[in-house]
Amino acid sequence: MPKHPTDLMNVESRFSDEEIALRDQVAEFVDRRIRPHIGTWYDQAILPTELLPEMAELGLFGMHLQGYGCAGRSAVEYGIAMQELEAGDSGLRTVVSVQGSLAMSAIYKHGSEEQKKHWLSQMAAGKVIGCFGLTEPTAGSDPSTMKTQANWVNGRWVIHGQKRWIGLASIAQVAIIWAVVPVKDLIAAGVDTGDKTDGVMVRGFIVPTNTNGFKAEAITGKLSMRASLQCDIELKAVTVEADALLPNNPGLKGPFMCLNEARYGIAWGAMGAARDSIEAALDYSAERLQFNKPLSAYQLTQKKLVDMTLELNKGQLLALELGRAKDAGKMELHQISVGKLANCRAAIEICREARTIFGGNGITVDYSPLRHASNLESVRTYEGTDEVHTLILGQKLTGEAAFR
């Protein structure tokens, strides 16, 4: 029998023994360390940083990367872990995404061998926390308009600019900062620019957060992702050595390669929030009596539960198909947009509908669906909004780029 009553299609039967063992390990961590406290953390807007070493011990940081102290898990295993974490809370899943899919992936995909050896093992062990500085106050969906700039001055890189909505920045020890760099400065620094001799290029830099001029402050007043940490970053003449530059994959290709890793994880994670909401509604409806019988005995309640579970199972199968294709090296980039768009869209509707089964009780932190739905407002926005992914898929279908 499947572990979850919502598994009408027996998705679990498609998992290997090793995948099930990982799922159970992460689920046990969520049940023991997250579920008992998440309502309080969310209500008080606290990121429980004491969980970070435990996440590292579970091998969750950079778990899909090979070598350098990373777990070397498959794409499907990574996805399964993200589903279980987000069943606890989107904010806690985001910690793993920022650390592994963004900050660590940037160094792994674009860094030198020396940079990888220096940083990745420390980050996998949770001894160093990273953040990923791409989004700016006026450059969200269109990062090509970023204003943060790095210049080559007296043999060092000097960075000026601002970043916004940067996960973990105020507790991170290292930041991956993306900036535009004049080509003439790259040439002066001895960096290969191909056939470009003018203009600017987007490049990534590894910036220790204790560098003079680096300032990160948590964004407050959030109505979503409250048990999480997103920050503003200010960079005032932040000066780093020549070897802070990530040498590989220049241009926007660099950050987008990392974003695609995070987007893939979201396709799985959103289904964790959806599954938890349905199962909470199942439990509540079986116990809550109205007109002398449980809510679960009413046709309207059963219709809600069935409709939600059908969408859940479709989303889980989509995520699994993506993961198997990714592991086989056959996943196409537009398919990540299919997974991110479809599963975020489905998950937020599931969580909202699940909340209705709780009536007024459902607006409290005692029950998870509305917390999940609120978090998913952020999840559907970051790593590409619904609109951006729609246009990516529209371009795939029509051959026409309609972004501008």
UniProtKB/TrEMBL annotation:
GO MF, one example: fatty-acyl-CoA binding
Sequence ranges assigned to domain Acyl-CoA dehydrogenase/oxidase N-terminal in this UniProt record: 16-127
Domain Acyl-CoA dehydrogenase/oxidase C-terminal, chain residue ranges per copy: 257-397
Keyword Transit peptide: yes
Acyl-CoA oxidase/dehydrogenase middle domain: residues covered: 131-238
Organism domain of life: Bacteria
Keyword tags: FAD, Flavoprotein, Oxidoreductase, Transit peptide
Pfam families: Acyl-CoA_dh_1 (PF00441), Acyl-CoA_dh_M (PF02770), Acyl-CoA_dh_N (PF02771)
Cofactor(s) this protein requires: FAD
InterPro entries per the UniProt record, alphabetical: Acyl-CoA_Oxase/DH_mid-dom (IPR006091), Acyl-CoA_Oxase/DH_mid-dom_sf (IPR046373), AcylCo_DH-like_C (IPR036250), AcylCo_DH/oxidase_C (IPR009075), AcylCoA_DH/ox_N (IPR013786), AcylCoA_DH/ox_N_sf (IPR037069), AcylCoA_DH/oxidase_NM_dom_sf (IPR009100), Glutaryl-CoA_DH_mitochondrial (IPR052033)
UniProt keyword annotation of Magnesium present: no
Gene Ontology biological process terms in this record: fatty acid beta-oxidation using acyl-CoA dehydrogenase; fatty-acyl-CoA biosynthetic process
Protein family: Belongs to the acyl-CoA dehydrogenase family.
Protein name as annotated: Acyl-CoA dehydrogenase
Upper lineage: Bacteria, Bacillati, Actinomycetota, Actinomycetes, Mycobacteriales
